[in-house]
Amino acid sequence: MKFRNVMALSVVGACAAGLVFAQEQPQPAKTVQVVQKDKAEKSEAKKPSARMPNYFPKLGLSDQQREKILNALIDYNEQIDDLEDQINDLRAKRDADVRAVLSPEQREKLASLELEARKKRAEKADKGKKPAEPTEESK
Predict the structure, then answer these.
(1) Number of separate helices (H) and strands (E) present in the chain
(2) What are the residue boundaries of the structural domains of the chain, listed by start?
(3) pLDDT tens-digit map of 3-44
(4) Which of 38, 53, 97, 117 is 20 to 30 A from 70 in CA distance terms?
(5) Is-above-0.85 flag for pTM?
(6) Quick one: which of 89, 93, 118 has its CA closest to 26?
(7) Which is it for the CA torsion 41, 4, 115, 92, positive or negative?
(8) How many Cβ atoms sit within 10 Å of the Cβ of residue 78?
């Protein structure tokens, strides 16, 4: 699950970087400001929460133990979220720096190759889905 989230964020970051560099003159300062604004909005909307780990409810925890565990989970989850944000920022910066080396033609070709790959993945995912059962009316 974590790997899928990381991969999804990497794809989104790569797509965003491709869009930014598809323009004639990239404006990295502006994109950093947008990222910082998005982070601020996320942190305002995000309420700290935690879920008790598996099997812990069956341990007969006291209210005090339960509160301490949940507080520890919330504290660590916030730190982990911050580190994941830093990783995502580094990946976006890395992708932007790598794309900056490419010529405009190479960036355009890369964007079309990435789009083609996304379409193939979507088609493959659609094939894996079971087709809807025919209804009485369609028979």
Answers:
(1) 4, 0
(2) 2-29+47-117
(3) 566 555 565 566 555 555 444 444 444 455 555 566 666 555
(4) 38
(5) no
(6) 93
(7) positive
(8) 14
For residue range 57-104, what is the model confidence (pLDDT) as tens digits? Answer: 899 999 999 999 999 999 999 999 999 999 999 999 999 999 999 999
Residue 58 gets which letter from DSSP? G
For 33, phi then psi, to 5°, come to -65, -40
CA–CA separation, 36 vs 60, rounded Å?
43
Residues for the chain: how many in total? 139
Cα distance between residue 64 and residue 71, in whole Å: 11
SS3 for 1?
A: coil
